[in-house]
Amino acid sequence: MQKIRLVVAMLMLLNVIAAQPKLQVAIQLPVGFTSKVVANDLGRVRHIAVNSNGDLYMKLDRLVNGKGIYRLRDKNGDGVMEDTLAFGNYTGTGIGINNGYLYATSDQTIYRYKFDENQNIVNLDQPEIVVDGLLNKRQHASKSITFDKVGNLYVNIGAPSNVCQEQDRQKGSPGLTPCPILENAGGIWQFNTSKTNQTLSDGIRYATGMRNALGIDWNNEVNDLFVTIHGRDMLYQYFPEMYNQKLGAELPSETFYRVKKGDDCGWPYIHWDHFQNKKILNPEYGGDGKKEGAPNAISPLVGFPGHMAPNALLIYSGNQFPAKYKNGAFIAFHGSWNRTPEPQEGFYVVFVPMKNGLPTGKWEVFADGFSGMSPVTNLSAAKHRPTGLAQGEDGSIYVSDDKAGYVWKISYNK
Amino acid sequence: MRIKLAIFGLGLMLLSNFSNAQTSVQGKSKQMLNGKKVYDMYCQACHQADGNGVPRLNPPLAGTVYVTGSKTRLIDIVLNGLTDPIEINGEEYNNPMAAHSFLTDQQIADVLTYIRNSFGNKAGTVSVAEVKKQRAKK
Fold first, then answer.
1. Strands A329-333 and A310-315: what pairing?
2. CB atoms within 10 A of CB A3
3. When you count CB atoms within 10 A of the terminal residue's CB, does the N or C end of chain B come out lower?
4. How high is the pLDDT of residue A257?
């Protein structure tokens, strides 16, 4: 009897230890995959990174208890990340781990923190400044980052504009040719990580013609940069004579590009139209919904339905998931607002199968249900909004949410 | 006789008061109706159908003194747009709002009356004269 009591007590204790935060929503995944909430209620968790020892780093766009970076660690190896470390007194989006450093960004500065041999940060309160003074005009100001294999850092400097009009977001205001914003924003800049205290002029404009390439990752299979870009707003609201309400919700495409040095993706002159499969001249630049433009701009690999906001990109290099996922792309869609009054779309993670840097099939929804409702008629009611992606050493992936501050770990269990 | 006249007069006054009130109720409901049309066309895309806006980007119209408070400040925002950083209920919003001075005084009065009395808001109406006065100050 005593033994039974003891077992019951132990079971109850285990239950308490393993207690998961209350699940707001059920995440739907393909057969064989499971998800687990590993962080919750941290507010605006933007991009995330996982270190080789399993530590999860989260960049917050609103301070929680005065801190903008949170680290979760499983200290006792029981599979639960119970240990929390908070540091960094600035908000922002970008975070990444490269060559012994944790990099984190505010909307104008790229900082880095050095790891010791135990994967602990040695300069929590005194990060090095890698690049400072990046353009921050609030609109599209998130500085997402990635790294290549030879010591370069790539940062998205979004255009502080919808479509480079004389008067931003003013109905009827003409587009500027050439667009002056492209000089110091609207593209990806490359910096060498062997130097600190750099400014924009120390970097090179690696690629241009991007409104806001918030999703950014290096593809190690083909050794190239891949990005996802947020397309322009307001085609229907500004040009109802060319785009009806439904078309204005579907267009322009959100886009996924492979980018080489010197490439131009065509913003602000064109948008991608996944129905016509063409680069369509924006009406602010003389377009009529059919005329093509920007002949020298590259075309995307995939055009997704409009306004879904591809906030993060992860090229999967792990071995845990089935073979079809290897070298393919996961994209976290934050969910739309510019489809109103049509229902909102997105709020999921999609997968694009790829080989040799090219899609091998149609994109599919991989993880769904984050919004907690279908359809989403009011954005404000969506429970979670996927924002960041990371891959763990074991091949699991992580998805962050900047609405309620959750992070899910997704694994394949056969 | 005099008393009868006085009662008659009082009755007339009451009647006219009543009909004034009725006109203003009718006026308000007409403003609400027309204001919604303006809202759907020019405001809804950013501020959303439920007036809650978009986190980080477009401010809410529900439950903020920017909407239910000073009418002159509110009229100015519509006429001039808003590009300065704005914090509402502890949240910052980053998308600029374009000037909407192309709307008529009537449209602005209607849409502001609409947003001041929708999404759970309850505040006074905005008149054409009030918009005209602000526009003249520019």
1. antiparallel
2. 7
3. N
4. 98
Higher pLDDT, B131 or B25: B131
CA A262 vs CA A185, A204, A207, A290: distances in Å: 14, 10, 5, 27
Q: Please tell me the distance in Å from B67's CA to the nearest CA on chain A.
A: 18
CB contact under 8 A, B50 and A378: yes
Chain A nearest-CA distance from B69, in A, is 23
Nearest by CB to residue A341, choosing from B49, B57, B96, is B49
A286 Cβ partners below 8 Å, 6+ apart? none
Q: A234: nearest CA in chain B?
A: B45
A167/B54 Cβ within 8 A: no
Q: What DSSP assignment string belongs to A251-285?
A: -SPEEEEEE-TT-B--TTTEEEETTTTEEEEPGGG
CB half-sphere exposure, A366, CA atoms < 13 A: 28
* Predicted pLDDT at A255: 98
Can you tell me which residue has the tokens 């959750």?
A: A406
Q: Is the dihedral of CA A135, A141, A142, A146 positive or negative?
A: negative
Nearest to A133 by CA among A113, A109, A153, A151: A109
Q: Which two tokens stand for residue B95?
A: 């998308």
Question: Is the CB of residue B44 less than 8 Å away from at least one CB of chain A?
Answer: yes
- Pick from B46, B54, B98: which is nearest to A170 by CB? B98
Residue pLDDT, tens place only, A169-224: 999 999 999 999 999 999 999 999 999 999 999 999 999 999 999 999 999 999 99
- Establish whether the linkage from the previous residue to A343 is cis, with ω within 30° of 0: no
Distance of residue B95 Cα from the nearest chain A Cα, in angstroms: 6
B107 to chain A: which residues are within 8 Å by CB? none
- Going by pLDDT thresholds of 50, 70 and 90, the confidence category of residue B120 is very high
Fold assignment, B29-136: Cytochrome Bc1 Complex; Chain D, domain 2 (1.10.760)
The per-residue pLDDT for B27 is 84
Q: What percent of chain B has pLDDT over 90?
A: 73
> In which residue ranges of chain A is pLDDT below 70?
1-24
This prediction has a pTM of 0.91
- Does A171 reach chain B within 8 Å, measured CB to CB? yes
Closest Cα in chain B, distance from residue A79 (Å): 33
